[in-house]
Design a protein that fits this description.
The complex is a heterodimer of chains A (387) and B (53). With 387 residues, chain A is an alpha/beta fold. Chain A has 2 domains: 228 residues, Metallo-beta-lactamase, Chain A (4-Layer Sandwich); 143 residues, Flavodoxin domain (Rossmann fold). In chain A, strands 16, 17, 18, 19, 20, 21 and 22 form a 7-stranded mixed beta sheet that branches. In chain A, strands 1-6-7-8-9-10 form a 6-stranded mixed beta sheet. In chain A, helix 5 packs across helix 9, helix 6 packs antiparallel against helix 7 and helix 8 crosses helix 12. Chain A is elongated. With 53 residues, chain B is mostly beta strands. Chain B has a single domain, classed as Rubrerythrin, domain 2 (Single Sheet). Chain B is built from no helices and 3 strands. In chain B, strands 2-1-3 form a 3-stranded antiparallel beta sheet, with no helix packed on it. Chain B is globular. Classes of the chains: A alpha/beta (387), B mainly beta (53). Chains A and B meet through loops of A and loops of B.
Chain lengths: 387, 53
């Protein structure tokens, strides 16, 4: 696949993987992207997952038509991109390995070898000329690992963006970009909004026509759309107006209250209501929704003097990703000593700029006229601005 | 008042500003930070900080 006249795709699709990075469900597989920049000198951009070394080397061979690469640029050391560095080094013994100083330390730790006799250490603003194409390296610390660099090719105006602008799903999957890119971003990079913002500021100074990420499709059109989404996500802004209800229910009583609230919210004009049963949904989807919409309702039972485990896990996923700038409401259930709201508020204590609604809902086992009135009051408060 | 930079991720500890989010008051010397202080961005310990140039 040609991306430009001189840049070819040499990555692979993975439809075998069950859990990406050991935790993310990827129903449409994954792509590990790699690129060949073919000029007077030839650079390969990153390697692929361990299981695809042979296929990747074949792709390179096909793309280069008898020539051999001069450089392997390693932008990111996570094994889904770095696992075949040693394979490459053996196949092309004269090629140099180009990467950041921190990445070479990681190479030694991962593979027992930092290729000392053939390494080129690059840092912020360092350039590498391939002939017509001059690569400029830009450091992207903690997006989302410390050693990350991204690479700009001024000849074709291409940004090789490492994991930035990546997405779940193999390249042959026919699906919307934003949904799986958001789940990928919030899940994997979400904590590092400040660092992504810093990188976006650096990128703003470049004339970028094409973005080549390490996962997901190559972005060639309407780049403003993708940049705008990344700016929203990394600044923890609200992408879509609406309310997410995340709940757990042991015997169905909390669920009944949640369904009643969802109906009330729709009746009162909420533009979008999303309901997630945390015990049964894809947790990463529920987390993604919480970061997408402006308001979140947490509904759970008091359990072992605590809260139900799926809710604890969910809130932990939020706080570790710097959840902030949202309105949050609580529904608690407890048959003798309800304390779930207190526990949930405590877990969110350190999160910045959260507004807790005045109305809260307390169920004593099941809905009654009192809790029904509380649901009504909560729905009114949440929907005030939608009227 | 000096600044110290995390060797791993580049986060800067500014003694003058402290780190209010981590419960460190403005004016706290780097040497007076608790031994279990970690970089709030990447999590490495005090031994992986260097004085800013």
């Amino acid at each position: 696949m040609n991306i430009t006249q001189d840049i070819q795709y040499v990555g692979v699709n993975d439809h075998e993987i069950d859990l990406f990075e050991g935790q993310y469900d990827v129903p449409n597989g994954m792509a590990y992207n790699s690129y060949a920049i073919i000029d007077e000198k030839i650079a390969i951009m990153d390697t692929v997952d361990a299981r695809f070394g042979e296929e990747w080397l074949k792709n390179i061979e096909m793309a280069l038509q008898g020539r051999v690469p001069d450089y392997l640029v390693v932008q990111h050391m996570e094994p889904d991109h770095s696992a075949n560095i040693t394979t490459f080094a053996k196949a092309y013994p004269n090629a140099k390995i180009v990467s950041s100083a921190k990445a070479f330390v990681m190479m030694k730790n991962f593979f027992g070898n930092d290729f000392a006799d053939r390494q080129i250490v690059v840092g912020e603003g360092i350039t590498l000329s391939l002939g017509k194409h001059e690569l400029t390296f830009v450091t992207a610390p903690m997006v989302h690992w410390p050693e990350v660099i991204v690479t700009y090719d001024s000849a074709d105006k291409v940004l090789f963006s490492a994991d930035g602008f990546g997405k779940f799903g193999a390249l042959d999957a026919d699906e919307d970009w934003a949904c799986e890119a958001r789940r990928y971003y919030i899940g994997i990079v979400g904590k590092y909004g400040a660092q992504v913002q810093a990188l976006l500021k650096k990128a703003a100074g470049l004339d970028i026509q094409i973005i080549c990420p390490l996962h997901g499709p190559i972005l060639t059109e309407n780049l403003g759309y993708y940049l705008h989404l990344y700016n929203t996500w990394s600044s923890y802004g609200v992408e879509s107006e609406g309310i997410v209800i995340a709940y757990t229910s042991v015997y169905g009583n909390t669920k009944k209250a949640v369904m009643r609230l969802a109906d009330l919210l729709r009746e009162k004009g909420c533009p979008k209501v999303t309901v997630n049963d945390l015990a049964r949904c894809d947790m990463a989807e529920a987390v993604e929704d919480a970061f997408r919409y402006g308001k979140l309702v947490l509904a759970t039972t008091t359990y072992n003097g605590e809260i139900f485990p799926f809710m604890r896990e969910f809130i932990h996923h939020l706080t570790e990703r710097n959840f902030q700038n949202r309105t949050v409401a609580f529904i608690e259930n407890g048959s003798w000593a309800p304390m779930a709201t207190r526990v949930m508020k405590g877990l969110l204590e350190k999160s910045k700029n959260l507004i807790f609604t005045e109305a809260t809902v307390r169920l004593l086992s099941a809905m009654n006229s009192e809790s029904e009135a509380q649901l009504e009051a909560l729905a009114d408060e949440l929907c005030k601005e939608y009227k | 008042m000096s600044k110290y930079v995390c060797d791993v991720c580049g986060w800067t500890y500014d003694e003058a500003a402290g780190a209010p989010d981590e419960g460190i008051a403005p004016g706290t010397k780097f040497s007076d930070l608790p031994n279990d202080f970690v970089c709030p961005v990447c999590g490495v310990g005090k031994d992986q900080f260097s004085a800013a140039q």
